[in-house]
Sequence to fold (1572 residues):
Amino acid sequence: MYAELHCLSNFSFQRGASSAAELMHRAKDLGYQALAITDECSLAGIVRAWEAAKNVGLKLIIGSEMLLTDGTKLVLLAPDVTGYAQLCSLITRSRRRSGKGQYALTVTEVCTDSDHLLALWIPRWPAQGIPDALFHAQLGALHPHFDARLWIAWERHLHPEDQKRLAALRTLGKHYGLPLVAAGDVRYHVRQRQRLHDVMTCIRVGGTIRALQTPSFPNGERHLRPLSTLQRLYPADLLRESLAIAERCTFDLAQLRYQYPEELVPDGLTAIQHLRQLTEAGIRQRWPDGCTPEVRATIEKELALIEALHYEHYFLTVEDIVRFARAQDILCQGRGSAANSAVCFALGITEVDPARMNLLFERFISKERAEPPDIDIDFEHQRREEVIQYVYRKYGRERAAIAATVISYRRKSAVRDVGKAVGLPLDIVDALTKSLTYWDDDAQFVERLRGLGFAVDSLLLKQLVALVNEIEDMPRHLSQHVGGFVISHQPLSTLVPVENAAMPDRTIIQWDKDDLDALGLLKIDCLALGMLSALRRALKLVSDYRGTPLTLATVPAEDEKTYEMIGRGETTGVFQIESRAQMSMLPRMKPKTFFDLVIEVAIIRPGPIQGDMVHPYLRRREGNETVEYPSAALRKVLEPTLGVPLFQEQVMSIAMVAAGFSAGEADQVRRSMAAWKRKGGLEKFRDKLLAGMKERGYDDGFAEQIYQQILGFGSYGFPQSHAASFALLTYVSCWLKCHEPAAFCAALLNSQPMGFYAPAQLVNDARRNGVGFRPVDATISNWDCALECGADGELDVRLGLRMVGGLPEAEALRVVQARACKPFMSVEDLANRSGLTKRALDALAEAGALEALTGHRHHARWTAAGVQRLDGVLRDSRVPELALVLPAPSEGENLRADFRSLKLTLGRHPLALLRSRLRRIGALTAEQIRVAANGRRVRAAGIVTHRQRPGTASGVVFATLEDETGTANLIIWTQVLDAYRDAVIGSSLMVVDGQLQSAHGVVHVIARRVQDYSAWLGQLDVSSRDFH
Amino acid sequence: MAWFRLHIGARPFIDAAAARGDNSGGEGSRSGIVAVRLRANTAAICMHIEVARWRDMRWRARRATRRCAASGVSDADDTMLWLCIHLPELPLEALALPPEMAVGVVEIRGHRRQLIRISQGARARGLYEGISAAAALSLAPDIRLVDRNPAAEQQALEAVACWAYRFGAPVTLSRETGSVWVEVRRSLRMYGGWRLFRLEIEREGIALSYGVAYGVAPTRPAAELLARAGAGLDRPIGRMGDLPLSLRDKAIALLPFDPQTIDILYGSGLRTVGAVLDVPRDSIARRFGTDTARWLDRLIGQGPDVWDAFEPPAQYRRRFELAGLVDSTEALLFPLRAMIGDFSQYLRARDVAVQTFRIVFLDGARRPVALDIGLLAPTRDPVRLLLVLRERLDKLVVDEGVLEIKLEADHFEAASIVQDDLFQTGRGREDRAALYERLHARLGAQAIRRLAVAPDNRPEKAWSEKPVAGAAAEYPPRPLWLLPQPEPIAEPVLISPPERIECGWWDGVQQQRDYFIAEDRDGRRLWVYKDANTEGWWLHGLWQ
Fold:
């Protein structure tokens, strides 16, 4: 007897205070016939609403609330597919022309191309009186166009002038011959949400709850009211009219038909024929002598599967993007289940050769799982934008857009926004949010509040905590996905509204990844990867210098020296296995083959660590533990990893093989694990798993262990298909580091900022491995670091101008350009011919890059500061100046200047300068610590290069100290951390007393006492890279 | 021991006036005080001098003239001698926060918010100046960060400037560097030479609630540099010729140049003021601009120095922060007496009187209770001011105690004009504004109410008494008469549909009311509501 036609979900950001699911449930419970979700100029939440409606079994009407530029407010409803497309394109038009998050639409525009849409006119009442003239003007403009598709909405929220208002609407209705309909302007599902809605209003207008800048609604009537209440408030005919409208709306999202883009297929060929041709061409290139029968069989199997599932266009689209990147010399690499297929190797989408790697790639795409193919492509991070713009160009803005990411409230942002809204002072809010993130977990929230001097049971605090819990996980705004492209054959705006992203030249659709999955739309992830930039540069440096082209594919495979280096844990700067945890694992793992690297990449991750799989695997690998399989079926799944499940695919297989899950169920487990953990639902899954395993004869202990492993994997587990693609990059980077260390280091420096290590550590590491470095020199250096032939015949790295702090690239390039004509005679000459700003010139002087022209740094800076730019005929003349005798800088001064400007020094390590003082306090060098006896008490000193507190290591801090001889690793347990918190967190130069622990060639110092000696460094600017 | 009040205006006249025993004071003589008014309306500050000591000083002055010449600080020199009072902790102290509190004063420098001053409490937590706000919060999440408050700094400097008037004139100040200068050469003789003068500065300095560093030199820049270098009063430099040598070894970080300039000087190997002074001035000008070069000239007295003399402001604003919550009016009298004393001295300095001023008491939550004091006639007599204040204070109710007192006065009258009586008959038409003002002044703000709206949907909160222009149309129709407190009534006869108001959850109780218009037996229209929580009926207003 009633359908609510005007209802905002929380995807009308900061206006709706309930989720679509909450609204749908409530409406169903109250006996509503249908519920329209009409978020303001947005369909961002509609897929969720559609799914919720399906779950609940209530009819969903799709619509949108619009505030037109003249102040008219409408609710537009989509009765059918055409109407839906019209709504999408109206939203798209109104948003594309406006800034992010805004829209603009005129009455005239609403009245064109909207002949299928139904419209409710929503009167906007002032606090007192009836603005008759205004209403006439609005209805007068709408009425001729919408005619029988226009209603006047009567929304009653218990205002004292309700009677007058209804009478006025009745009069208007008679005048224009328009029916009235009851509506609710619903903002939340139950009255209790009024609080949250008030707070959201504050967040939206930037006010606080006690001093609202715009008045909030006077009451909580904007909820889904019971039918009995509605009957009391509204005339019966108006309620009935809502049903009549609901009946006209028959559109369901399931009616949408998405088509893959088709233009990549040449005329006269079918898509599969074309894909086969490309594959065959690829095969000839990959295997000039013909491929093995096994490969051929795999390819045939895959092609058949692709054809059966109609995924040809998907593969063709990916191939096209990769081909463009390759033509532009942009390094890229595909990964994901579908990417590691033989077809993708033939098409050049991946360099991981399935034949050579001899692996199980069963998880390609399976028929029974209706999962769309999944290929992520990584591109060089600094050039990905070119690829993105290519896709926009190729398919047009109408047909290609980036998926949205719904940014939801996390505890931190919730505390910030709600805290401000309830009137906490800004610095308290800052302090609160800061203390939440910095090494403290959520459970300490209330404790932290107490520590900040709050009365924890005060009203304000209770409200804050309650509201934060309520708003958490609610959407806050739309952002763009990191690189997920949606491409369709028909204009996207007939499927989903498109809007502008915050970045220029980017458009996004209003749906996110999960929405696309739910509706089966094609998505290709174009991601940015810094290591690819570094590898491309290193390969180019080597190719140019050696005169023979080197590519990812031609890097010699399974090189013994490379694996030896990896086994020693010397992996600073390489891909994926460079972290402290990885480095300490490598001497135990001693990878010998590519598959070992795949395991190494996958193993040091929160999933395997949380599931306690790392140590069993190591013990078995070292032969200290026998490899056992619970059953023959599981042996097949687990054999490659010595019986220990390490990959996501294996865990899913276990669920299927051992507990009888279907493929679809197993996949559901993987997808929903994170959500279950947050919101509950795990018990059901656990019972099913344990029951399934018991049935198949596995004992409870093993079943429980598998359950824990799946728990650990659920959110973080690493798929083998991704690990394999990453491992290839790991291998190549290690090979380069081993055989071409100068080129590798130069390429890393040229690709900064990226990765785990700061330039100083990369350079120190390379120097320890025998690479020579030459200083930045304005008369020689280019923007990038380059290779020069050293005195010993080995390659040296010439630091580039990019290392100079405070020197913009454009200015540096002017120096290089001016130098190309004629060498510089003097600093004035350099300044005048390259037209540098004073600041840039000073940056060069401070970096020591002018020493060839002026002598020592002091002179350089004084001269640089005194350069006067003269125009016209005076251009080449100099204004004479009395020469000043300036003292030469000391070694320490040079070192400080190096660090300030370049963040590294080619002179002695700072600790070398302090060595005699350090020796006096009994500190050992890193070298001495490396060879000291296990269990010995030592004092270590060094510059803190890393400080890490992994979430998996229960409060332990790992730190790395660097001195002139190398690095020493610290482990700081919680009680030591608590005792020396300031020194642990605040030191640049740390002195640590502790006990040595060495095993398998890995040496740690277990800290007992930590002291801050940073003062010794003076103003040395060496900042640690803290990863939290 | 008798006290004389000596009003020091323009220094050159002091001795002459004092010698004549000139008594041109008016009301002061009634209370046994001799006021020596030298110039009407000159910016000045009163000071007390013990008569005996004053006589003694004149004697010593003559003797000290000879001795001072030997110590380098002589009153015979005809160059200026500046005493710089530098406030190194001004950004922090201007905020007048309890010292044990962990506080950092934050300023945006470049792109980052950094702590430019920190309290002792913050230092104890391992923070230091220059640390970024983000880093500070990670180290000590419970630290209180406060933005720099230039207005408070200005007020603090002005207070110090007023204080400095007792040592000489002119007085000038710079908020950028946080310093006050006062020219003291001519005061030396009057105080009996440097040694006694310095004792006087130190003695008076105890009263200052700011940490100060002194420097004394013939140029303002040098005096400030010495102050910043911590030279204090021990090493005054009296002769211009001594300047270059005495400044030589000071670090260049003391120079008030922008960081970029200091950085280049340092990076060029110049580490002392002497090294910078040795550089030819045109080389300096070429690199850092002529202003920098001229400043160096001024530093050693080789260039003209220009400044704006400070004068007491036209409007009086003082705040006094109490050490803790004070909840008895008797206890409030003590700080008030001090404030009124200062106030009357300010009035005297400007040679004005006051008829209306305002005292604001702030409680722990910084909620103000304002006391508008109106007098029958303008005055500057502290006794009368305090008397009136005391009368009003008796009626003051401050529930949660007072944490801060502010004294504000905007309008002053020339001291000689006699003000009209409130109800004098001579004037025919009092316009409404004037009447309001007078009533306000006479009866206090609480006695006069004007209705206004406030942004809240609860009717009783939507009315306020602040004199804000009405914007009634922002709310639904409301009755003109609103009861101060709703009163319970029996269920009335309703004649309107309901208006529902649900608000106030943030104050702990969610009010849920359905308002109706009702009619009583006499046909009066009432504004009533039904409380949804209790089901009871309440009368809240009357429509006619």
Q: What stands out?
A: The CA atoms of residues 112 and 145 of chain A lie 8 Å apart.
